[in-house]
What we know:
The protein is α+β, with helices and mostly antiparallel strands. It is built from nine helices and 20 strands.
Amino acid sequence: MAPQKSTYDVIVIGAGIQGSFTAYHLAQRHKDTLLLEQFLLPHSRGSSHGQSRIIRSAYAQEYYSRMMPESFRLWRQLEAETGTTLYRQTGLVLLGPPGEPELEACRRNLGVDEVLDAAALAQRFPGFRLQAGQVAVVDTTAGVLFADRALRTVQEVFRRHGGTLRDGQKVLHIEPGPMVTVTTTAGVYKAPRLIITAGAWTGAFVEKLGLRLPLQPLRIDVCYWREKQPGSASLGSVSPCFLTLGLSQAPHGIYGLPSIEYPGLMKVSHHHGSPIDPEKRDQTSSSTPGPDIAILSSFINSYLPGLETQPALRETCLYTNTPDEDFILDRHPKFSNIVIGAGFSGHGFKLAPVVGKLLCELSLGEEPSYNMAHFTITRFPGVLRAAL
Ligand SMILES: Cc1cc2nc3c(=O)[nH]c(=O)nc-3n(C[C@H](O)[C@H](O)[C@H](O)COP(=O)(O)OP(=O)(O)OC[C@H]3O[C@@H](n4cnc5c(N)ncnc54)[C@H](O)[C@@H]3O)c2cc1C
Ligand SMILES: O=C(O)[C@@H]1CCCCN1
């Protein structure tokens, strides 16, 4: 057997959606790229699994909404390149109290004048019942990304462009230097550039490289609720995604997507979870309904009368949050040939094509295509440990 190749132009650690898109951009630019993943693919232990994610232009922060046209374009390009459907336009309803600052900022950034009241919303989307005094803003560009399929597709194209993907290899050690050495459970690899996109594991990882990043992994309970009338909230019906802003009973927001994963079951969950060590995620039981489920049940009872009020199914997923919920996309302050992409705080999937492009640009020493001020490591004080 020929000895395994061990030297590359770039090594990317973590084959979730961010690492996979980063590797895809690098390979498209003819960089000899190695993408390493600790688990056998596909897997459901990180943040990128499941069949659906929301994609929307509606963002309160202009620096994200400005990236969305390019992200939509790159998703379409991937669809065209592979002949695969990855996106379904459904629209998205943002709902909350009138004048709520985030809702207003989203409306402004969308360039939408219209604000719907309960009657207007019910006419457009019959499944929704707004509460008195609340309003809705509609993002017509929004829809659902077919997440598992998207991840598989981007990895396939990466390979087609000559990239190497090795799964079932956990990275154990990184030795910085002009040639970075990466030791895994199965081999030793070298490259002049390294990119770390290790999701919820990133904090522990970079700690060994002298960085204390404020990354908090959260365990998210994903809940599915049965349609009383089968098919009423399916992709084929007039059923949009939705997101609440500024509701007092759910300050982090409640969101939902039409029934996709499981016919007849609509996903409705909190945009929040409980702190967890990613290595111990299965040690906490999720079988007993907690207070968060009671809030969701009550929300469904009021706003989505077409659904039953007890969850039919619960799954788990991981967020990795930063304190300001903005991403970290930056070079290591001391080792500039090591780039870090982390802290996607539960909203990174839709932007992965642009994130991948930015991480690729940072790694190749190019001027990034967008203003990176909100994504720097140094916005957090005291991240560089004195010892290094
Ligand atoms: C329930 C839920 C709903 C969401 N909804 C939306 C949404 O609607 N819209 C949206 O835009 N975003 C959404 N997100 C967020 C989005 O899914 C994440 O931001 C995104 O998947 C993060 O991808 P990642 O590549 O950073 O992490 P991951 O997918 O976790 O990838 C990191 C990878 O690194 C690997 N790794 C870690 N350590 C090592 C090691 N030592 N060696 C080798 N490999 C390693 C891991 O195994 C993992 O595969 C949601 C997330 C969740 C959990
Ligand atoms: O990024 C998004 O669009 C969604 C919003 C709701 C929570 C999960 N992420």
